[in-house]
Design goal:
Layout: E1 5-11, H1 15-24, E2 32-36, H2 47-51, E3 77-80, H3 88-92, H4 94-110, H5 122-133, E4 136-138, E5 142-145, H6 148-162, E6 167-170, E7 174-180, E8 183-189, E9 192-201, H7 208-217, E10 222-224, E11 227-236, H8 237-247, E12 252-255, E13 262-269, E14 273-278, E15 286-291, E16 300-309, H9 318-333, E17 337-340, H10 341-346, H11 352-357, E18 368-369, H12 378-394, E19 404-411, E20 415-417, E21 430-432, H13 443-460
Parallel strand pairs: 1-2, 1-9, 2-6, 9-21, 17-18
Antiparallel strand pairs: 3-5, 4-12, 7-8, 8-9, 10-20, 11-16, 11-19, 12-13, 13-16, 14-15, 17-19
Helix pairs in contact: 1-13, 4-13
């Protein structure tokens, strides 16, 4: 080990890692290291977003690594529901999860989250009734929207509060976890062994493969989550405005009649733009995503349609399957593929001329017109088509022949460590949190998972360090 020993090391500076650090920073005397292999927030600049070029995978993707994690470039939607964005209620129970999310909401408000709330009121109930007539289930969710631009301001404020209290290292890669006699002892960071008493691993979706590899090396139990595969849909904003004005993001679920599969909407971005992101790593693949900004709006709204699939024996590599589909789209298009819904229904490839004649102007200019039927299995395409037809009854125009479909969108959160109710692994003092651990699927529950791990660490450290609290972070110390 190096001479420097920490009480706690946190791997990953996404929402889970940051909120764990915020909780630990309230305790006097704790020596905490928060590390991330990506860049500081100010240096995270995606060439695609800056220059509008096609995505050439970088060694580390600035969209998903660095201070703030993938949340720094996300749409910044904060969803406060035990039923959306993760599985924390499986660990804590519904009411305890609700209370924890309320606590997390308070911290976000201290750091400058919007006072405006979507997804509450009588209009939500009316929309839910209309959705049921179209065989859709609307999941009511309380939402606060930050916007991609506001998210970065908030993350900077969090870093400024943490910097005097926690050692923050960016550009630092956790290579392996060090364990002796069933207890965590440290982390190998850029070739150097650094000791710790407690470890919180929160590597985000981009680090899910690394965490799964470490879990297998350490002979930890892994469960497989369903994998979500689908497309990003882009329509004129007016088509979905009745929904987005009330809900901001419509959480709609559908059971496809042909295959009885669960299909759902995800990450709706009103007046937003479609974006690309890379998984980075040794064999990166490019996938599609969406953003919305508070101060820069487009004429379109985009959202994902995802099909959830749970694999059974003998197959146990859902992440590899998702990467295969994304890589296939990359090979055929050089990046992300786009197709008009009308062309897909007619069994023909979209070309630049057809896209140009369409009524929806694509916001992802670098997407290559193509044919998604060469990428996605028939089952997925059928599920997506059937849900679009159902959505069209709720929001007429969604299933227009001019609607754009981008592919593919894949969510890599398929391996889940076997964890206790306080998110401790089978190795003593080794905790896992956030999307990369398969525990959560969004900003808010990821943040809450970091709090769970940190609180348990503080509870165990009942000695001198844990007995001298500094007091909670207040608005005066959390600049807006």
């Amino acid at each position: 080990m190096t001479a420097k020993q920490f009480d706690v090391i946190i791997v990953g500076s996404g929402p889970a890692g940051i909120f764990a650090a915020l909780e630990l920073a309230e305790v006097e005397g704790l020596d905490v290291l928060l590390l991330d292999k990506g860049k500081p927030l100010e240096r995270r600049q995606c060439p695609v977003m800056l220059k509008g070029t096609s995505c050439q995978p970088c060694r580390l993707c600035d969209q998903v690594t660095g201070w703030g994690g993938a949340g720094a470039f996300s749409d910044g939607k904060l969803t406060f529901s035990p039923d959306v964005g993760g599985r924390l209620k499986d660990y804590l129970g519904r009411e305890a999860t609700r209370e924890l999310l309320s606590y997390v909401e308070g911290i976000y408000l201290q750091f400058g989250a919007s006072d405006h709330v979507y997804g509450v009121g009588e209009e939500v109930e009316a929309l839910g009734h209309r959705a049921s007539l179209a065989e859709l289930r609307l999941v009511p969710v309380k939402i606060r929207h930050l916007g991609t631009d506001r998210s970065r301001e908030l993350l900077k404020a969090m870093r400024d509060v943490l910097a005097p209290r926690v050692e923050i290292r960016t550009g630092a890669t956790a290579a392996s976890i060090i364990v002796e006699d069933g207890r965590v002892r440290g982390v190998e960071i850029d070739g150097k062994k650094t000791g710790c008493r407690y470890l919180v691993v929160a590597p985000g979706r981009e680090g899910a493969d690394w965490l799964a590899h470490e879990a297998r090396r350490l002979k930890l139990s892994l469960d497989s989550n369903p994998i979500d595969v689908g497309v990003r849909v882009e329509v004129p904003a007016v088509v979905t405005r009745e929904l987005t004005d009330v809900l901001y993001e419509s959480k709609l679920e559908f059971c496809s009649p042909t295959f009885d599969d669960r299909v759902r909407t995800f990450c709706m971005c009103p007046f937003g733009e479609v974006t690309m992101e890379s998984t980075a790593g040794a064999e990166p693949v490019m996938t599609v995503n969406g953003h919305s900004y508070q101060n820069c709006k487009t004429d379109n709204t985009n959202f994902a349609l995802l099909v959830s699939t749970s694999f059974t024996e003998p197959f146990h590599e859902p992440i590899a399957y998702g990467r295969y589909l994304a890589r296939l789209a990359n090979v055929l298009s050089g990046g992300v593929m786009v197709q008009r819904l009308g062309d897909l229904m007619e069994g023909r490839r979209s070309n630049p001329e057809r896209i140009e004649r369409g009524m929806v102007v694509p916001t992802l200019k670098s997407a290559t017109p193509g044919d998604l039927s060469f990428v996605l299995p028939y089952r997925y395409l059928k599920d997506i088509m059937e849900m679009l037809q159902a959505l069209d009854k709720l929001a007429p125009g969604v299933a227009s022949r001019h609607t754009l479909l981008y592919g593919v969108e894949v969510k890599f959160y398929s391996s889940c460590l076997r964890l206790s109710s306080n998110l401790e692994s089978e190795i003593e003092n080794f905790f896992a949190a956030g999307d990369g651990a398969g525990v959560t699927r969004g900003l808010t529950q990821a943040s809450a998972s970091g709090v769970i791990a940190a609180r348990e660490i503080v509870r165990r450290m009942k000695g001198a360090a844990a007995q001298r609290p500094r007091g909670p972070l207040t608005a005066s110390r959390a600049p807006r």
